[in-house]
UniProtKB/TrEMBL annotation:
One of its GO terms (biological process) is 'de novo' UMP biosynthetic process. This is Orotidine 5'-phosphate decarboxylase. The active site is at K96 (proton donor). Belongs to the OMP decarboxylase family. Type 2 subfamily. Keywords: Decarboxylase, Lyase, Pyrimidine biosynthesis. Residues 16-254 form the Orotidine 5'-phosphate decarboxylase domain. The gene is pyrF. It catalyses: orotidine 5'-phosphate + H(+) = UMP + CO2.
Length: 269
């Protein structure tokens, strides 16, 4: 998907909500467990109930890998369901990959060609030749971890490398990568106070911002410091939406939570 299509969708829906499909079999409603593929049935119900309020969906691959072949099948069925029924939606494989060049090419093929995701999250630690194989795919997006939402972000990401913190070096250096126009960045909502500086380095890039809701980040602060003329934000919520209820009404309750967030977002547009 081209970035312009994502921006158009955001303007039409007045939403820049990304719903995280971090599906834990222990947390999904009991009545779904009798289905052949409970994870897929859960995702399908959530997507059908919320697709008009969100612009992106982000399955976190760990939650599918943990179930082996069954998990991968549920993931494949979920991405196919979105692509066939709601092709306007932007899809993110939250896989946090990155390796030597030929291995990264295989990861890119897995998520862009076989799974047909629009984007994938990538760790920048191994540098240029680990990231560029993902950037080589036309109309696909590579979402580089810049400043993450967790406490451990302070272990390395904020340490100074020369004059600047490492996360700023990641942002600056990645701009020189081949096909860098296909880059987006992860910045945790819990680090909203860093967004002013981040926007000085990447004024236009889209930022995937997880960490509102369960992790305590503020949607208002993220919008205040991170929004650009073309919005430039995808704000993710996973647990706060998909586990709003674990009863038969789970999809309706997820819709209510998504609507609350969409309405809040609309007030910033
Ligand atoms: O790359 C991510 O999506 C990510 C980066 C980050 O810095 N923090 C973070 O929480 N995430 C992911 O975003 C989701 C957050 O989930 P909730 O806290 O339940 O909304 C999880 O899938 C995390 O793996």
């Amino acid at each position: 998907m081209q970035t312009e299509q994502l921006i158009q969708q955001i303007r039409t829906k007045k939403s820049f909500l990304c719903i995280g499909l971090d599906v834990d079999i222990k947390k999904i409603p009991n009545h779904l467990l009798k289905e052949t593929d409970p994870i897929f049935e859960f995702n399908k119900a959530i997507i059908d109930a919320t697709h008009h309020l969100a612009v992106a969906y982000k399955p976190n691959i760990a939650f599918y890998e943990a179930f082996g072949i069954k998990g991968w099948e549920a993931l494949k069925k979920t991405i196919n369901y979105i692509n066939e029924n709601y092709p306007e939606l932007f899809t993110i494989a939250d896989a946090k990959r990155g390796d030597i060049g030929n291995t990264s090419t295989m990861y890119a093929k897995a998520f862009f060609e076989d799974m047909e995701f629009d984007s994938v999250t990538i760790a920048p630690y191994m540098g240029k030749d680990s990231v560029e194989p993902f950037l080589a795919f036309k109309d696909k997006h590579t979402i580089l971890l810049a400043l993450t939402s967790n406490e451990g972000a302070f272990d390395f990401q904020t340490l100074k490398v020369g004059e600047v913190p490492l996360y700023q070096k990641v942002l600056e250096t990645s701009k020189s990568y081949k096909n860098s126009e296909n880059l987006m960045y992860v910045v945790g909502a819990t680090k909203a106070e860093y967004l002013k500086e981040i926007r000085q380095i990447v004024p236009e890039s889209f930022l995937l911002v997880p960490g509102v809701g369960a992790q305590g980040g503020s949607l208002e602060d993220v919008c205040k410091y991170g929004m650009t003329e073309n919005i430039g934000l995808l704000i993710n919520s996973s647990r706060g939406i998909i586990y709003a209820s674990n009863g038969e009404d789970f999809a309706d309750k997820a819709k209510e939570k998504a609507l609350e967030m969409q309405q809040q977002m609309a007030s910033f547009l």
